[in-house]
Amino acid sequence: MEFLASLMPAFVNEHGAAIVVVIPLLAAAVAAVMPNGRIGWGVALLAVLASALVAIAITVDVQANGVISYAMGGWQPPAGIEFRIDNLNAVLLLLIGFTGLLSVIYALPSVADEIADNRQALFYSAFLVCFAGLLGVAITGDAFNMFVFLEISSISTYVLVGMGASNDRRALTAAYNYLILGTIGATFFVIGVGFLYMATGTLNMADIATRLPALSDSRVVQAAFAFIIVGLGLKAAMFPLHLWLPNAYAYAPNFVTVFLATTATKVAFYTLVRFAFDVFWPEASFVQISFLWVFAILGIIGMLVASVQAVFQHDARRLLAFSSVAQVGYMMLGLGIGTLAGVSAGMLHLVNHAMMKGALFMALGAFAVRFGVRRISDLNGFARSMPFTAAAFTIAGLSLVGVPMTVGFWSKWYLGVAAFENGWWWAVAALILSSLIGAAYVARMLAAIWVAEPHHDRTGDIAHARAPILMLIPMWVLAIANIWFFFAPEFLISMTNAAAESALAGATR
């Protein structure tokens, strides 16, 4: 990463915090007026690539020089809006940039298959707005500005999900439900931010953090915390606030599902960590209670209930969607443990889950492009006609279970270790049980792909059945990453440890 960062012009190093968000916003306007989808895709690809490179430069700068504070418009914080990057949100910038780039590469054949030609340029424009909004959530240091970026990303996401109606009219209902629940979550969040402003007189999160310890007994502050946790919990699909997610993932265009699965809930989980540790005072009794009785308990219930729900699904994408709810439960358990080891394990699972679920949904999208399949039974015998796609799906599926020699093993190992260190043997038991249930539904899909007889002959024309190269490349990058980072996990572990240390630094202020 240091080599790529060294190639950046000086103005990028100086203004990178703003540039990383501005590039996709400007590119969205350009993509919207492009004459066809292929050119719109090119605009999106260049914009996401540029943002990813800037994100790398920002991360290297943070690792070398510490926290970056960028005052927007020359107005110094706390009066002005601040973009603030530390080791905690640097992980998110890299994740959004890297997975966003892979998703856009994957998008060209997938979007061409599902979206009408005259709507593709607008589709890429909406994606770029969503991409910019997620980056903005990760990078801002202002609580109200975070609400604005959350809504920028959410509103464009509703549009993207709804555009799946050309293949399945249920996408419109999914988008509508997502809109209603997303709006409720945003309303709760902004009410909480309003209470914080009432109590502290500032919207800058670092400034709020310095004032809250003296106000920990304030009912206004406690109400603010409750509203913010509910609002962000809904955005993160924390059980039982997850009802929008299964249908949104199942009926959105395949590319949209890939991108959302690798970024959206991860950004929302980051904001929970940011507020729980870095804005509110973690030693406050109401925050301490939330670690066990909200994050940990609801996380464990979500792990088990959503895993059981996944077992009984017949639609392949709905199965993986319920699996995502369970995986959010793993992250919430790490947050609920509340220690350096727990938060680090939760952040590690955040990154690992993006790699697992990204490859899984990419593989399902490739199956759909070639054969239009949706149900698990439709996957019967796919290993014979699409062996490369089936192999990538298998690697990511085993990683989702946590099988050794895949990166998913480390997530669950470190979560288990953190829970044991906290004396939570019951959490370790729930972790093991949830993994066993996960093995059941993953085995069901793998059996269909590798063992079951196909419903009709798919073996006659292997070349025709092979996934497009632009879908295979990002899919296999993620599949290989699931294996590579098992044998070389130091990079991910060092970054997530640094992220957790940055979060917990708020507890010692």
What's this model, at a glance?
By secondary structure, this protein is mainly alpha-helical.
What features would you highlight for this structure?
509 residues; mainly alpha; two-stranded antiparallel ribbon; 21 helices; globular
Largest sheet: 2 strands, antiparallel
Oligomer: single chain
The share of residues in extended strands comes to under 5%
Measured between the Cα atoms of the first and last residue, the distance is: 31 Å
- The topology string of helices and strands comes to HHHEEHHHHHHHHHHHHHHHHHH
Describe, in plain words, how this protein is organized in 3D.
By secondary structure, the protein is mainly α. The protein has a domain at 282-509. The chain contains 21 helices and 2 strands. Residues 459-463 have low confidence and may be disordered.
